[in-house]
Amino acid sequence: MKALLEEAGPQGLSHAQISDRLHDVAPNTLATYLSMMTTSGEVERHGDFYRGVASVAEPVADTSDGGDPDAVEHAPAEQE
Length: 80
Hints:
Layout: H1 2-7, E1 13-14, H2 15-21, H3 27-40, E2 43-46, E3 49-52
């Protein structure tokens, strides 16, 4: 259900639209899960519509100095 709502975009889906897509889920079970997911912050409710909350991405490397975040600095090799 969470993936379904995340894929629905910013508009989200109404309870009826979710029920249509998850036709094998009992109405009371669907209502309970939507309520629990809303309370826990996994889903946002906006009026009659529910939408998924995108998960937080991994931190992005700071490349503000123009450097390559994948580059590894090595000390110059000593010559004999």
